[in-house]
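Title: Prediction job returns without error message
Component: structure pipeline
Severity: low
Priority: P3
Assignee: unassigned

Description:
Job completed but the reporter wants confirmation the result is attached to the right record. Sequence as submitted:
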Amino acid sequence: MTELRALSAALFTPHLNTDFTLVSDEGLEITATLVACTEHPRNTMRGTLRTAFDLVLQCPADGVPHFNGASFTVSHPQLETFGPVYVERILPASAGPGMAVFQIIFN
C-alpha cells in the first residue's frame, strides 16, 4: 500500500477520467471517475514535501447511500492502493442531481 505522504497531484493527473474504487471500513464499495485533480499552493503548509491538492470523483447517484464523510481505501488498476483517507460527499454547482460527487483533500 502506498504511503499517503508519497502521494502528489502529479501521480493522479495522468489518470483523469478513469475509474477508481473506494472501499469504506464498513465494506461499502463505490466506483467513481476522477474528474479533477487540483493543486492548492496557497494552502500548502511551510516545510511540507508536497503541494496541497484535492481529488474530485463522481459517479451516478443511484445506489450510493448518503454519508457525511467516511474513511475509504482507494485503488486504481495502474496505481497502488492507498488509504485510509477521509472522503466527503460534496455538492458542487456543476454536478447534476443524478450525480454523487466526492472530494479527498491532501495537505
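Comment from assignee: result matches the submitted record. The longest strand covers residues 79-90.
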